[in-house]
Design a protein that fits this description.
The protein has 252 residues and is α/β, with parallel strands linked by helices. It has one domain (12-251): Rossmann fold, CATH 3.40.50. It has six helices and ten strands, in the order βαβββαβββαβαβαβα. The chain has a five-stranded mixed β-barrel with strand order 5-9-8-6-10. Belongs to the PNP/UDP phosphorylase family. Pathway: Pyrimidine metabolism; UMP biosynthesis via salvage pathway; uracil from uridine (phosphorylase route): step 1/1.
Length: 252
């Protein structure tokens, strides 16, 4: 019998874990967990696939959020009900600044709230900011691995196509309100687009939880729209190594 509505998990299964690594992709949960000690599959329901692993004997949950703010909010809420207090998102992303290359690692300090779910936790005037300790741990982990991360602001959109001003679509059109936004965010020094961080940061700040985010760049939107699979795999592995090292630091 599950203790929560969607994740099909009990508090006992988490073994007292207070930190969760939260990728978007369910398949990524397994790949991350198998880099931890004693990985154990917990559950898979809808977009939520969860594993338990250990770092230096301390339990860590790895649970996918699915795509976007609504499912992310469910994942975070129910893991918090089960005792998790720190959330490290690891994702892949499309950079929008010409100087950021495919394969680079980005650490998000704050997000532009282009989503709807975050408004259910705080008004738009409330900032979507990462926790300082989580951000510092991610930054230090990257530097220790010889990675020079980009650190800054992410645009976090509810939709993958119009909200990120993509024209490689069925209609080839973008609703008027979203035309020109990519250039606007570039001019405002936003690094990238993704779809979960604004909900994650707003929710966690409002609820007194900790959250941070690291992402690997798999496309640069100024150059291409479709990622190379081999490069995507290498970039994911790099970002995963950073999030695991950051988790270790936060648990020490």
């Amino acid at each position: 019998m599950s203790d929560v509505f969607h994740l099909n998990l009990t508090k006992a299964q988490l073994k007292g874990a207070t930190l969760a690594i939260v990728p978007g992709d369910p398949a990524r949960s397994e790949r991350i967990a198998k880099l931890l000690d004693n990985p154990e599959f917990l559950a898979s329901t809808r977009e939520f696939t969860s594993w338990l692993g250990y770092i230096n004997g301390q339990p860590i949950v790895v649970c996918s959020t699915g795509i976007g703010g609504p499912s992310t909010s469910i994942c975070v809420e129910e893991l918090a009900q089960l005792g998790v207090r720190t959330f490290l998102r690891i994702g892949t992303t499309g950079a929008i600044q010409p100087h950021i290359n495919v394969g680079d690692v980005l650490i998000t300090t704050a997000s532009v709230r282009l989503d709807g779910a975050s408004r259910h936790f705080a008004p738009l005037e409330y900032p979507a900011v990462a926790n300082f300790e989580c951000t510092t741990a991610l930054y230090n982990a990257a530097k220790a691995k010889g990675i020079e991360p980009y650190v800054g602001v992410t645009a976090s959109s509810d939709t993958f196509y119009p909200g990120q001003e993509r024209y490689d679509t069925y209609s080839g059109k973008v609703y008027r309100d979203y035309q020109g936004l990519l250039k606007q965010w570039q001019d405002l020094n936003v690094m990238n687009y993704e779809m979960e961080s604004s909900t994650l940061f707003t929710m966690c700040s409002a609820l007194g939880l900790r959250a941070g985010m690291v992402a690997g760049v798999i496309v640069n939107r100024t150059q291409q729209e479709i990622p190379n699979e081999a490069t995507m795999k290498q970039t994911e592995e790099k970002a995963v190594s950073v999030v695991i090292a950051a988790a270790q630091a936060l648990l020490s």
